[in-house]
Each structure stands twice: as structure tokens, then as C-alpha cells.
Amino acid sequence: MKKKNIFYKIINKKIPSKIIYQDKEITAFEDINPQSPIHILIVPNKRIKSINEINEKNKNIIGNMISASVKIAKKLKFAKNGYRIVINCNKHGRQTVQHLHIHLLGGKMLGKKFN
Ligand code: AMP
User: Fold this and answer.
1) pLDDT in tens, 73-106
2) How far is the CA of 53 from the centre of ligand 1 (A)?
3) Reported pTM
4) Going from the N-terminus, what domains does the chain have, and what CATH number goes with each?
5) Among 24, 46, 55, 73, which residue carries the largest CB count within 10 Å?
């Protein structure tokens, strides 16, 4: 059997995690190594390796992932203060888990720089 990635295990509750939101298409959970007071990962339940794999057929998932991020920010009451959404891609983007994910970061004034 093909080895399943860590996010697959979280989505399917094979390992413990702090799930914030889940529906048929998307799961959101707390990052294990938070880079800000709020650091949530939003992932498609069906694996897409990276943002490079987004195409005409599957592009709706990105809108749904962003929409879920906004809903979470509103529900957890940090939407008004603001937040940052980040998607890392492959080696230069320092993507470490090969399962598309949005980083939703907030809860403080974030740094100015991206690099
Ligand atoms: P990236 O570097 O963009 O691929 O981000 C992967 C993220 O997954 C990192 O921020 C990790 O801290 C996070 N991560 C890795 N393993 C886990 C886990 N078991 N539970 C929650 N977050 C994780």
C-alpha cells in the first residue's frame, strides 16, 4: 500500500490533532509548530500535492479553502484585526508536506517581510 502522508492521517483521524473545522471537502486543524498565536492549516480532504496541481477541473477547491479560512477567522474573532494566508509550493517555497495546504496566521501584528 502507498504510504499515506501526515495530513491524510489527520483528516482520517488516524493520529490526534486539534481539528477546528471539517466538511466533506475540507479539514482545518491547528499547526503543531505555530508561527503565530493563531496558526491553522486548511487542507483538501482529497490529496492534491501542491498548488502546481491546480487546474481548470479542480480550481474550485482553492476558493472553498479560502472561504473556509475566512469563516474560521470570523468565528474565532480575529478577522477584523486581520491575518495572513500563505501557500508554500515545492522546494523554493519551502513546502515540507506534499499535500496542498493554506497557512492561516493571525493573533498578533505579523512581520513585514515574506522572505
Ligand atoms: P509547509 O512547510 O508549508 O509544507 O507546512 C507544513 C506545516 O505542517 C508546518 O507548519 C508544520 O508545522 C505542520 N505540521 C507537520 N506535521 C503536523 C502535524 N502532525 N499536525 C499539525 N501540523 C503539522
Assistant:
1) 999 999 999 999 999 999 999 999 999 999 999 9
2) 19
3) 0.97
4) 6-106 (3.30.428.10)
5) 73
